[in-house]
Amino acid sequence: MAARSIGSLTISFGLVAIPVKLYSATEASRQISFNLLHKTCGSRLKQQYFCAKEDIPVSRDEMVKGYEFAKDQYVMFTPEELKALEEAGTHAADIEEFVPISAVDPVYYDKAYYLAPDKGGAKPYALFAKALRESKRCALGRWAARGKQYIVMIRPVEDGLVMQQLMYAGEVRSIRDIDIPKMDVREGELKLAKQLIEQQSSDRFDPSQYTDDVSSRIEAAIQKKVEGQEITMAETPEGGAQIIDLMEALRASLEKKGGVVAGKAAKAESEVETRKPAKRAPVRGKAAEATPARKRAK
Question: To pair with 192 at 20 to 30 A between CA atoms, which of 184, 239, 246, 297?
């Protein structure tokens, strides 16, 4: 089934304007959701709000939004006041700068949209996509929609463009906020780790190789329930023996993936590095005097 456009906008940079159609790049509808039911009769439950002070149900027309600025202290906003604070939709993504694609950490990535050329936009769309692709850069700009303002990154993919919503700086925590101890890495361990990475490396990412096993199990269980079958829970398999030594863990990983020869070679090399030849004790006394005699006897 052909994808349906969820909207349209104009990409503008300089004096160039590109009309495009917007398509959702992900399918949230594929997520399995459950409804809350009454256990005794199986009827659907309805959500109801109660006033904590008066202990009475409150209808939606009696509700207002408030912000808690101190413990149990709120300032209230009417729907009109909140509407006035919203960002007006512009239906345009205004490009402000171009940066290398690698300069944007994926931790900032949010929702993604596919972009396709709208009427009259095919040629500037193709030109823009090719220019980004060959320069290995992406476009950064702003987009206002649904009362909010977003940072967006427009990047080339295959023959088209993707508009990626980005998080603001204040929405992403710094990795410096967590405690990561500094450790020395031994050369032998590093070599084995690189071998393991090389052994499991691919030239491209193929998402079809990864499936959602949990969703598959849930769907199968739902179908069995619909058909009136009993569901039996599979026993959790026992985990393998834990390997504490890092070198042993790396060697075991290589051997498990078919790298037995590489693992043995690395093990032998590691043993040579760690094992030093024993020093010979100096020969003294009668044994020292006998040494030349044995040589003469030969």
Answer: 239
What is the C-alpha to C-alpha distance for residues 166 and 109, in angstroms, rounded to an integer?
A: 5
Of the options 2.40.128.710, 2.60.15.10, 3.30.450.180, 2.40.290.10, the CATH number for the domain spanning 7-26+87-171: 2.40.290.10
CB atoms within 10 A of CB 163: 24
Nearest residue to 191 via CA among 123, 263, 136: 263
Q: Which of 161, 163, 85, 86 is closest to 130 using CA atoms?
A: 161
What phi and psi, each to the nearest 5 degrees, are found at residue 270?
-65, -40
More confident position, 272 or 31: 31
Closest CA to 21 of 227, 194, 200, 160: 160
Mean pLDDT, rounded, for 5-15: 85
CA distances from 22 to 3, 135, 254 (A): 10, 24, 46
Q: Which two tokens stand for residue 187?
A: 């050369």
- For residue 213, what is the DSSP state? H
On the 0-12 / 13-18 / 19+ scale of CB atoms within 10 A, 9 is buried
36 in Cβ contact with 45 (< 8 Å): yes
pLDDT tens digits for range 218-227: 888 888 888 8
